[in-house]
Amino acid sequence: MFARYFIDVKYPGQFSMAAVQQVWAPLLDRGVATIRVAMLDGYTVGVSGVTYMQDTFNGEQTATMVFFWVDPLARGNGVGKAMLEQAERDSRAHGCTNIVHGHMFTVNEDGGRGIFEKRGYEVIELGFRKRL
């Protein structure tokens, strides 16, 4: 379902669905992660993966957006905004007080930084964070 993101974008030429399932299946089974896929006309146009765990530094329940991708052809149509809003709702439902997107380098390459800042995320050392 979300293989296109991993195959074409995240790990071109080196993707293994088995590896993704091995890592994410236990998290999903334990209820400490969510993967969301945005579809438009039968095509995957967005993918996000979020984990929910206690922050080892401050003890707060924190959501970490491990991956977030919107197809370049779907950008500017509200897909990313809707996906971020859903990630925030999911995070609140898991008792999280923060949501962190720790992959600053991925959003700088294609200008995606603006979507986070428009939604109230602040730039932190490793990426973006928003108080929920």
Radius of gyration: 14 Å
User: Which H/E pattern describes the elements?
Assistant: HHEEEHEHHEE
The CATH homologous superfamily is termed Gcn5-related N-acetyltransferase (GNAT)
Q: Give me the CATH architecture, please.
A: 3-Layer(aba) Sandwich
Q: What is the average of the pLDDT values?
A: 80
Q: In percent, how much strand structure appears in the residues?
A: 25-35%
Shape: globular
The structural domain count equals 1
Global structural class: alpha+beta
Q: Give a quick account of the main beta sheet: strands, pairing sense, barrel closure.
A: 6 strands, mixed
Number of helices: 5
- Would you count the extended β strands for me? 6
CATH topology: Aminopeptidase
Q: What distance separates the N and C termini?
A: 29 Å
Helix content estimate: 25-40%
Characteristic terms for this protein:
132 residues; single chain; alpha+beta; six-stranded mixed sheet; Aminopeptidase
What does this 3D model show about the protein?
- The protein has five helices and six strands; from the N terminus they run H-H-E-E-E-H-E-H-H-E-E.
- The protein has 132 residues and is α+β, with helices and mostly antiparallel strands.
- It has one domain: Gcn5-related N-acetyltransferase (GNAT) (Aminopeptidase, 3-Layer(aba) Sandwich).
- Strand 3, helix 3 and strand 4 form a beta-alpha-beta unit.
- The N and C termini lie far apart (29 Å).
- The mean pLDDT is 80.
